C-alpha cells in the first residue's frame, strides 16, 4: 500500500504525463486546423512549393531542383539515423536504471522515485523517439516520391500536355512535397517534446512547466516568427513624395 507522499507523487506524475499528452496531441491538431485559414510556416511554404513547381516547368535544366529535393531528403535521413542512435542509448540506459538513478539523486531539486517509475519514464521517451523515427522515415519516402514526380515533369514545348495538365502537375508535386515537409515537422516536434520529458526525471512540476514552454515556443515559431514575416513580406514600389516640379 502506498504511503501518502508516494501516493501524492504518483498522482502528480500522472497529471504531468496526461498534460504532456494533451499538449502534444492538442497542439498538433490545433496547428493543423489553424493552418487552413491562417498564415503560418506550413501554409506559406506550401505556396512557395507551388510557385517552385510552376517555375520548374519553365526550365529546361532541372539539376538545381533535383539538388534541392536531395538536400531535403538528406536532412530527414540525418534525423532518422540520429533517432536510431538515441533509441540505442535509451535501451542501454534501461539496462542500468539503478546506476542512472544514483546519478540523478545527486542533482538538486530531484524528486526521488522508485525504479519502476524511472523505467516508465524511459519507456515514454522510447515511445517518443520510436514515433519520431517513423515520421522521419516516412518523410524520406515521400521525398523519394517527389523525386519520381520530378522525373515525370512535362518538358517545355511538349505539345501533348495541356496547360491544365501542367497546373495539375504543379499542384500535385507541391502537395507531395508539403506532405513530406509535414512529416519532417512532426518528427522535429517530437524532439522538442522529448527535451521537455527530460525535466520529468528531475521534477514532475518542472515537467509540467517545460511542456507548456515547448508549446509556446512551437506556437511562436510557426505562427508569429520573424522568418514567417520575412517570407510574407512583399516589397512595394518606392514613391517619391516630392513632385518633380516644385513650382
Low-confidence stretches: 1-5, 243-247
- The DSSP helix count reads 8
Mean pLDDT: 87
* Beta-strand content bin: under 5%
Radius of gyration: 25 Å
State the end-to-end CA separation. Answer: 96 Å
Largest sheet: none
Return the structural class.
mainly alpha
Order of helices and strands: HHHHHHHH
Summarize the structure.
The chain is mainly α and 247 residues long.
Topology record:
Blueprint: H1 4-34, H2 41-56, H3 63-94, H4 97-105, H5 115-151, H6 163-198, H7 204-223, H8 226-232
Helix pairs in contact: 1-7, 2-6, 3-5, 5-6, 6-7
Structure, described:
The protein is mostly helical. 76% of the residues lie in helices and 0% in strands.
Highlighted features:
247 residues; mainly alpha; 8 helices; elongated; disordered N terminus
